[in-house]
Amino acid sequence: MAKKQKTGIMGGTFDPIHVGHLVTAEAVRIEYGLDKVLFIPAGNPPHKQDTGVTPAIHRYIMTVMATYSNPHFFVSPIEIDRAGPSYTIDTIRALNTQYGEQTDFYFITGADAVVDLPTWENIDEILNLCNFIAAARPGCDGDLDKVINYFGEKGRRRIFRLATPELEISATDIRERVKQGRSIKYIVPESVESYIHKEGLYL
Ligand code: NAP
Fold first, then answer.
1. pLDDT digit string (tens) for 72-88?
2. What pLDDT is attached to residue 21?
């Protein structure tokens, strides 16, 4: 029988993608022995309907540029191409159909997002279909235990934490820095920095 593939799904708004995201994805890839990591920029984040998220095309292009040099990293427009709110259940179902039972999925995202899992649409089904890796800033994952316990045995089997000091970097801070004319050098890849300035994002 063919060996099962392990695919990471790096879900995020990526507004913009930064070095913290990239270091996290690479750390999970190595620690969990993933064959590849699929970055999926959220098209229309369900929990950000009233906030001004940067148009998906910009976030998608920046994600492609940031990940291009890593042979294990890929980017999918699946959520950007789909109309309506980007519910994770729709993405996981589509990937499950596309890749079949020979793939184990690891959804990688921020611990703050994982803490909200009980409110996600069809979360029971999502937890049947994939594992979660919660990337946590050191000392900021207190609520993660509560969420793991909330789901009981399934939570303990499916939800894992990864301490990522690099997540001191935040997309919110980067947007603020650009607005204030401060440097974002070395906290985003050079290509992303150039793109942000060329397109006049976050001013
Ligand atoms: P968010 O609320 O903007 O982010 C929460 C925290 O997690 C932030 O500190 C963020 O840092 C960090 N983060 C986000 N993505 C990350 C990643 N891939 N790796 C490491 N840290 C990450 O969360 P979001 O980015 O909009 O959403 C995260 C994912 O959850 C997306 O795929 C989204 O579609 C999904 N989601 C689904 C539902 C649903 O199906 N109902 C509801 C909510 C979220 P930065 O700000 O620095 O990125």
1. 999 999 999 998 899 99
2. 96
Q: CATH class for domain 5-168?
A: alpha beta
Residue 18 contacts residue 174 (beta carbons within 8 Å) = yes
From 29, 53, 109, give the residue whose CB has the most ligand 1 atoms within 8 Å, as the site to mutate.
109
Ligand 1, atom 10, lies closest to the CA of 110
**Cβ count near 34 (within 10 Å):** 23
Q: How far apart are CA 79 and CA 40, in angstroms?
A: 7
Cα of 113 from ligand 1 centre, angstroms: 5
Which DSSP helix (H) or strand (E) runs through 79? helix 78-81
Confidence grade of residue 184 (pLDDT, cut at 50, 70, 90): very high
